[in-house]
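Reproducibility note. Readers wishing to regenerate the assembly model reported in the main text can use the exact inputs given here. Chain order matters: entities are listed in the order in which they were concatenated for prediction.
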Amino acid sequence: MDNQRVVLASRPSGWPTEENFRLETAPAPKPAEGEVLVKNLWLSLDPYMRGRMDDVKSYAKSVDVGGVMEGETVAEVVESRNPKFKKGDKVVARFGWQLYATAKDAMKVEEGRAPLSYHLGCLGMPGRTAYFGLKEIGQPKAGETLVVSAASGAVGSVVGQLAKSWGARVVGIAGGSQKCAYVKDELGFDAAVDYKAGNLHRDLKEACPKGIDVLFENVGGESLDTCLRLMNPFSRIVICGLISEYNLTEPYRYRNLRSVLVNRIRMQGMIVFDWRERYGEALKALTDMYAKGSLKYRESVVEGLENAPRAFLSLLKGGNFGKQLVKLA
Amino acid sequence: MDNQRVVLASRPSGWPTEENFRLETAPAPKPAEGEVLVKNLWLSLDPYMRGRMDDVKSYAKSVDVGGVMEGETVAEVVESRNPKFKKGDKVVARFGWQLYATAKDAMKVEEGRAPLSYHLGCLGMPGRTAYFGLKEIGQPKAGETLVVSAASGAVGSVVGQLAKSWGARVVGIAGGSQKCAYVKDELGFDAAVDYKAGNLHRDLKEACPKGIDVLFENVGGESLDTCLRLMNPFSRIVICGLISEYNLTEPYRYRNLRSVLVNRIRMQGMIVFDWRERYGEALKALTDMYAKGSLKYRESVVEGLENAPRAFLSLLKGGNFGKQLVKLA
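Running the prediction on these inputs yields the following structure tokens for the assembly.
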């Protein structure tokens, strides 16, 4: 049985290209005693993967050149040598950009309550990121104004809906009128601001007449720097992602940091792994919200592992609309 | 009886000059029923005063053009029409850059335990700033590395000594070999780095072989941007002052904000007024420390109100060595 996998062919400098990836065919791995062999059904593509392509110190190890690209998948157990799992079980884990993998352990997912792919999105890592970032750092109170960037994306859409359900006024930043309409009309945000319209400061100011109390930042750069000018006293900034910076060879230069002092802002970086002991709490909250019909969610699907690099490059430019997935089987 | 006072003659653009100030003579005010008349003995000069000269939204109101420059003083009650105070009482309050003032209330200071002027420094606002910033935001744990900028100054020197007493390893950033020697030899910091030596990143890295766990930032600009490169996972940054930015017409542009995400840094701005209900707690802790001889402190004194503007301009360039005071009587 053959495995297909996408490996890192070379490290990018600045924007990656398809040449930085290589599709390989190799024999599928065999599970050792205590392991399972899984077949990946869905692969999640996420902005953090750009960081793994670089050889710089970060919170996680880089992918080696020649190594399989890292990524979370929903998979099916096809062979089990571990009594905890049986053939046909559905699991989620970091099985990478490939068709088959072996593992000692993985998180089982319950079928039937939600589409399997949702465990890579609103009920998975992006959903948990939204939940802990908001609950532990952003802490929006009823009546406060929350702004979230990349608002139509996997994390942003959950952030906004959670904050709405907690009583905040929610403003989303997204690229283009289609995404903005979705954020406002489908997700139910109070306002949406199109960063591509070219008047970000003016438009945000208009959308946030009482200033910003919580900023959930997924993008960074101009977006963050502009929001800094509108932050209220004692406001909070969740630094969840800085996608606009990941492909710059020279970092963005922030002008408005003085606002942190003047407004006594608390700005905090987050990585969802830091709450791994509490994943169950997030899953329960998000699943309940989904079951009540109050968690809207959108996916952007490409088919076939060979198309993963192209879809990933598009994601880095905001080309996706909703959570980006690769359907593998 | 004549009052002398320094008023804001005009607003500066960039670095202020002596022309932005004017020394005036006017009749001393008379206390109304319920008020006291005080004679200022010591005037504190502090970097935050630069902000009050600008007409921009900040956490505190600007000084009006023609208005008396704001500032904290130690004063003596010379006439009391308030039963809480009697002639000869020593008080601390925001009586401004002048010889006489009237007020309804002020904080009495106990004489004898420490020099009166210390209530403008290590036992006053700068001391409280160090105490609450460190205790509530920086939270150094035993064995952690703390870096403080403007280390020989009123706030910085207390920050370092407090952190040492709580078991942290303390590194100070100061300008010039004399201040660095003081920080290390007199204040007992573990290391001192001279930012004027031109190798801030290299020297800091050498002084902090295990990285930085807490940064207490009084300066901003290059100092903060350089420290961002050395911050550890889960480290904290107290944004207490950004003196290097106060005179720039174009703000400093920070390059290394990505460290906040990668290292899950918590960066928080602070203004000591936010803890005003707890000033007594800080005074007790600092007075105890002083009484035990474990709070070293240095003053830089000029005599005469007419010299306040010049001393203030020098302070903005780091020309002071220790807490800058003006002796008025």
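We highlight two features of this model. The first strand of chain B starts at residue 2 and ends at 8. Chain B touches chain A at residues 57-59, 220, 224, 233, 239-242, 245, 251-271, 274 (CB under 8 Å).
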